[in-house]
User: What shape does this take?
Amino acid sequence: MGLPRTDDLAYVTRFPSCAKAITPHDTNPLTNFQGSAQPQMVIVNGAGDVVVVPAGNDDAQTITYTLTAGSVVPVICRIVKAAGTTATGLVGHF
Assistant: This one.
């Protein structure tokens, strides 16, 4: 049967196997190196605001998190918006 796909939002069954720097963009969805899965987590290395579209929301439903360095965005993100994001060093783990 194998492991479920990592883009299944119901649950995550494994630790991430790769990481990729994230450049915030207002419309581009986050993808892994193969262009498919959303990151299981996004880590913030420089404190600030992170404006995201959670995986289950439509594009207009954004959430802003104010996070300290080393924090993890507490939702699976589909988009990290450039507008309003001031945090730096964002890394997606897939």
Residues 53 and 62 are 5 Å apart (CA to CA).
